[in-house]
Amino acid sequence: MTTPALHVNDLRKTYGNGVEALKGISLTVQPGDFFALLGPNGAGKSTLIGILSSLVNASSGDAEVFGVSIHKNRSEAMRLIGLVPQEINFNQFEKPFDICVNQAGFYGIGRAEASVRAEKYLKELRLWDKAHHQARMLSGGMKRRLMIARAMMNEPKLLILDEPTAGVDIEIRRSMWQFVSGINAAGTTVILTTHYLEEAEQLCRNIAIIDHGRIVQNTTMKSLLATLDVETFVLDVSSVPTSLPVLPGVVLRGMDDHTIEAEMSRAHDLNSLFAALSTHGVTVTSMRNKTNRLEELFVRLVEHGRENAA
Amino acid sequence: MSGSANLVALGTIVRREIMRIMRIWTQTLIPPAITMTLYFVIFGKLIGSRIGQMHGFTYMQYIVPGLVMMSIITNSYGNISSSFFGAKFGRFVEEMLVSPMPNWVILLGYVIGAVTRGVIVGALVLVIALFFTDLHVAHPITTFVSVVLGATVFSLAGFVNAVFAKKFDDIALVPTFVLTPLTYLGGVFYSVDLLGEPWRSISLVNPILYMVNAFRFGVLGVSDVPIVTAFVVMLVFVVGLSAIALRLLSRGVGLRS
């Protein structure tokens, strides 16, 4: 049996002020996986990542990285992890090249090898031309990419990305995902937390959703998306008629003169909808999902959890 | 991590600390040199010429070791407290905390960096002193060991201060209200033999007195306290403060949630 990249067993954390951030989290991430860890703000994601990277002391439970306990053998476990934190946490007065080389040094990697790696990753993340400028001069997107380059300096087997694309423009986000996908394809296990759910849907094969310190869903992305029973489509039409057709299992709403929303079961076919609209003289010019499918599921799961808690 | 990997990690911290000292040399090296020059001019030349001899040396010669040690102590303390607290404040201490590096390597790296600044500043002040008076080092090994031990004691104290500090004010309070008074009362400008009781006995509780006198013995060959006692006091502080600092790192006080 393959040793999991990450095995978390009944991890709990209660902070000094009494806040119970994790209430017994257990999950397994297989080697080579691209794993999404989602949850609303304050759900416990960052606490979990903090414990895995040894920045937060767990109250109880344990986690193993490729079979190495983070409590019993912290040093060996940390050697296997690369962390891209949510907040900028490098010395803004140092240069990106030095930041990367120093990080490698903390892992016991000599300067010669560290310099080669720093050049490689700074080039791959399109930061080489800024390698010898003070880091405070970098743009927000560059700073995020620098943290990825820094996390790669020990060439980790498990890369943890905590909201790495927050506040980053779409072009840079895409280039970051291209890089991380390449790292994953080369064998590195990736755990991602993000609030951009379309990223998680596109990139991740497995997913866990945390809310109120508990795992509320832990499955494959395909299985989760398959549970979505209702979808809402936005139809751009030539003109919205005064009376909309009535179809069983479909709720149609005219939003403005040229837009109709159609909320329907996934089992319902689209042909009958188009046929009904056509008989009412409506020409559909384009169509899209109202929200990302994962986003719709995420909202439902979190809201369901809150209703239960209430 | 293996021994060689620990050595690489240690070298990385020391290198980074020395680069920091050199990068901001106008804050780390020049101010103490200017301050001590003023001390030499005012206390050594202007006032000292009216005081006469102390333990067989001119007043200027007598205060030079004390002022050098004072520079070493305050700069070692200031370096580690501002550097480590700065790393905490800017959160880049996390770069070290998430690495496999053991805690003792982090502590030793910062202490070596702070001792290095203390030694550089001490050497600068000593060179400036030579413009005002003649000095011949009586016991070079004692001088060297007292510098390293004295700087280490206050590096460790500065580290503990930085671990507990929550804001920049917290690392300024201890030097202002504890370190400076203890230094002035630690026999930098006078021999404690001049004090009557109970002030002489009270002065013997001040650890800085032992550091200043150990260094003065190394340079001039005279001391107010037995030199063995001075070294024992410094060693006790090194061991005690190291244990406290390592315990704080191990528990993650002020560093890990």
UniProtKB/TrEMBL annotation, chain A:
Keywords: ATP-binding, Nucleotide-binding, Transport. Residues 6-237 form the ABC transporter domain. One of its GO terms (molecular function) is ATP binding. CDD domains: ABC_DR_subfamily_A. It comes from the Bacteria. InterPro entries: AAA+_ATPase, ABC_transporter-like_ATP-bd, ABC_transporter-like_CS, ABC_transporter_ATP-binding, P-loop_NTPase. PANTHER family: ABC TRANSPORTER ATP-BINDING PROTEIN (PTHR42711), ABC-TYPE MULTIDRUG TRANSPORT SYSTEM, ATPASE COMPONENT (PTHR42711:SF15). This is ABC-2 type transport system ATP-binding protein. It comes from Luteibacter jiangsuensis. The lineage of its organism: Bacteria, Pseudomonadati, Pseudomonadota, Gammaproteobacteria, Lysobacterales.
UniProtKB/TrEMBL annotation, chain B:
Belongs to the ABC-2 integral membrane protein family. InterPro entries: ABC-2_transport_permease, ABC2_TM, ABC2_TM_bact-type, ABC_2_transport. The keyword Transmembrane applies. It comes from the Bacteria. It is found in: Cell inner membrane; Membrane. The keyword rRNA-binding does not apply. Keywords: Cell membrane, Membrane, Transmembrane, Transmembrane helix, Transport. It comes from Luteibacter jiangsuensis. Pfam families: ABC2_membrane (PF01061). Its main location: membrane. The lineage of its organism: Bacteria, Pseudomonadati, Pseudomonadota, Gammaproteobacteria, Lysobacterales. Residues 23-252 form the ABC transmembrane type-2 domain. It is a multi-pass membrane protein. The chain crosses the membrane at residues 29-47, 59-78, 104-132, 144-165, 171-192, 228-249. This is Transport permease protein.
